[in-house]
């Protein structure tokens, strides 16, 4: 990347765009709601079960002007989900300001491992043991979505639930490859601890992006 472009990336004027698509939010509180997804490249958290490993290397995804991303996105939906990769690796201030100027509802999917930038209508925090969230994102998260891969993830889920704000909605979501094993365990856990809700990756059952 040349120096001029690097400066624009540092300011959030350009962002490594991996893909964008209009679909149905498959997970969490807004499951079932049509939304336009903006997937940004770059993540160094390293979840071994990550379902978008192609996103990790930001250099593989072309720096794209935030203004152009927004002008395109507004044609599709009034709800925009920014995901990745880890979107908070980048300065989200300009992107979210431009989306809000168009009166769009702006949601984020994040591990919370980087400083919280941008103005959000909905923050989905999906914390990871390998790189824990910042204090600020625990205070501002609207939903906590813990991925359950093994038994220790129930302990981790409770530890993370103790850190979020009191209005935060709590979800356990099965790791996709382990779903047959962990779904019965999650069902049992949620019935015993009803402050939790189940979240499924419903888009994968619907065969949509
Ligand atoms: C690909 S991540 C991108 C956003 C951000 N890096 C994060 O992890 O929240 C989007 C969502 O998918 C979840 N996810 C990723 N791989 C998964 C898998 N194999 N099974 C279930 N959920 C998964 C993440 O925990 C996160 O909630
Ligand atoms: N339909 C659909 N819903 C989603 N919710 C969160 C996703 C993500 O990868 O961030 C996702 C995704 O990739 N597709
Ligand atoms: S933090 Fe998100 S994008 Fe990064 S590896 Fe984990 S699930 Fe994948
Ligand atoms: Mg996904």
UniProtKB/TrEMBL annotation:
Binding site for S-adenosyl-L-methionine: 49-51, 85, 126-128
UniProt cross-references to Pfam families, sorted A to Z: Radical_SAM
Catalytic activity: 6-carboxy-5,6,7,8-tetrahydropterin + H(+) = 7-carboxy-7-carbaguanine + NH4(+)
Binding residues annotated for substrate, in chain numbering: 24-26, 39, 83, 209
The protein's required cofactors: Mg(2+); [4Fe-4S] cluster; S-adenosyl-L-methionine
Associated pathway: Purine metabolism; 7-cyano-7-deazaguanine biosynthesis
Keyword Protein transport part of the UniProt annotation: no
Enzyme superclass (EC): lyase
EC number(s) on file: 4.3.99.3
Domain Radical SAM core: 30-209
Cofactor binding description: Binds 1 [4Fe-4S] cluster. The cluster is coordinated with 3 cysteines and an exchangeable S-adenosyl-L-methionine.
PROSITE patterns: RADICAL_SAM
InterPro entries listed in its UniProt record: 7-CO-7-deazaguanine_synth-like (IPR024924), Aldolase_TIM (IPR013785), rSAM (IPR007197), rSAM_sf (IPR058240)
Quaternary structure and partners: Homodimer.
PANTHER family reported in the protein's UniProt record: 7-CARBOXY-7-DEAZAGUANINE SYNTHASE
Family designation: Belongs to the radical SAM superfamily. 7-carboxy-7-deazaguanine synthase family.
HAMAP family assigned to the protein according to its UniProt record, in alphabetical order: QueE
Name the UniProt record assigns to this protein: 7-carboxy-7-deazaguanine synthase
Protein species of origin: Gaetbulibacter aestuarii
Gene it is expressed from: queE
